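Hi R.,

Here's the chain you asked about this morning:
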Amino acid sequence: MPEICLFFGIRITMYWNDHMPPHFHAEYGEYKALVSIRDGAVIKGSLPNRQLRYVLAWAVMHEDELMQNWELGKDKKAFIQIAPLR
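And here is the predicted structure, written out as tokens:
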């Protein structure tokens, strides 16, 4: 699964041609979550509270880029890297 961002030990990835709704995967240690791009809801899994707050703040800042990657993935094109949270 292609990595599109890494910050504070949190790995953000997307699959090509993944299922709806538009989402990304966030991993931190043994924790994994699928997060909706549009509303930040955790679709599946979980993250520790602090890391979830980081992921949601990052996702709000980069919603347009995440949706661009979602569209690229539907067309099986290379994803763009997204700047990490600092």
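One quick note: The chain has a mean pLDDT of 96.

Cheers,
M.
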